[in-house]
Amino acid sequence: MDGPTLNLADRLAACLRAADPADKLACVRALHADWRAGRVDAACDVPRDAIDTPGRPHRPDLVSPHQVPRRRPDTPAGRAALVHALAHIEFNAINLALDAAHRFAGMPRAYYDDWLGVAAEEALHFELLNAHMAAMGHGYGDLPGHNGLWDMALKTAHDPLVRMALVPRVLEARGLDATPLIVGKLRAAGDGRLIEILALIEHDEIGHVAIGSHWYGYLCAQRGLEADATFRQLLADYDAPPLRPPFNLAARRRAGFSEGELAWLTTL
Predict the structure, then answer these.
(1) Rg value, the chain, Cα
(2) Alpha carbon of 121 to those of 25, 95, 201, 204: distances in Å?
(3) I need a surface site. Which of 34, 120, 194, 242 has the fewest CB within 10 A?
(4) Long-range pairs for 134-137: beta carbons < 8 A, 24 or more residues apart
(5) pTM for the full model?
(6) DSSP character at residue 170
(7) Residue 67: DSSP 8-state
(8) How far apart, in Å, are the Cα atoms of 163 and each of 98, 114, 129, 157, 159?
(9) How many C-beta atoms lie closer than 10 Å to residue 28's C-beta?
(10) Under a CB-based contact definition with an 8 Å cutoff, are residues 82 and 149 in contact?
(11) How far apart are the first and last CA of the chain?
């Protein structure tokens, strides 16, 4: 077997900087395969320069969340807007997973195992949604998107505990809540293929939120913090998006939310 090829930080930076979606997907898959095969220098404490503006294509245009087209699955145009919005989320999620591994040096090796795996799964999700969008006669970039996910990455760039709390356990967990509602509408619209794709994404995203929950709990324990109370405080301190019902409590339980947190959610 060939020796390691570049260190982890350099490989992550190359994937983060890739702007063309096809190039980013290829970079992520090659890195994940090389990492699992031991072909990447696994020194996890190598200092790295943060990449605050990851690569992305010139389109979609980024607008305020309020200016994104309505996503009504009961019309072809609305369904195309929904798939585009989901693809945009997944493209940003690739960068978020890469950034979680790149920005925070000195974590246990298992942390990098987890986030490289997440990046590879987000790449698959984007590919599946992009292919479905193409079958509908559209492409990624045809409609505007917003930058809310990456904005939260920058707000949490200083501390992995805050990142684990507010990206996987808030933003990604909102997707778990939304999926059953979307699937119900897609059944009425007869889009069976998109329902299949969303089932795969939901399965994987439960795992991604669980990874966030695990490392959030790890960092709270390391710092002597009570996890549930700290999470609620971080929501307030960082003006996180409000948590609104209905909540997918079963999915959140599988994703590592404590019974105390689930009980608290039912009071909102």
Answers:
(1) 18
(2) 10, 12, 9, 7
(3) 242
(4) 135/193, 136/76, 136/79, 136/80, 136/83, 137/80
(5) 0.94
(6) I
(7) G
(8) 13, 15, 26, 7, 6
(9) 27
(10) no
(11) 55
The single-letter code of the amino acid at 86 is L
DSSP state of 61: P
Cβ-contact 51, 102 below 8 angstroms: yes
Backbone angles phi, psi at 20, to 5 degrees: -70, 130
Strand partners, 17: none
Q: Which region, left, alpha or beta, applies to residue 57 given φ > 0 means left and ψ of -120 to 50 means alpha?
A: beta
Domain boundaries, the chain: 8-41+67-265
Distances (CA, A) of 233 to 93, 161, 209, 230, 244: 25, 13, 19, 5, 17
Neighbours of 204 (CB within 10 A): 17
268 residues of the chain, pLDDT tens digit each: 455 567 899 999 999 999 999 999 999 999 999 999 999 987 777 778 999 999 999 999 999 887 887 777 888 888 999 999 999 999 999 999 999 999 999 999 999 999 999 999 999 999 999 999 999 999 999 999 998 889 999 999 999 999 999 999 999 999 999 999 999 989 988 889 999 999 999 999 999 999 999 999 999 999 999 999 999 999 999 999 999 999 999 999 999 999 999 999 999 9
Measure the CA–CA gap between 11 and 27, rounded to whole angstroms: 8
Helix (DSSP H) and strand (DSSP E) numbers for the chain: 11, 0
Q: Give me the residue label for tokens 């193409």.
A: 134
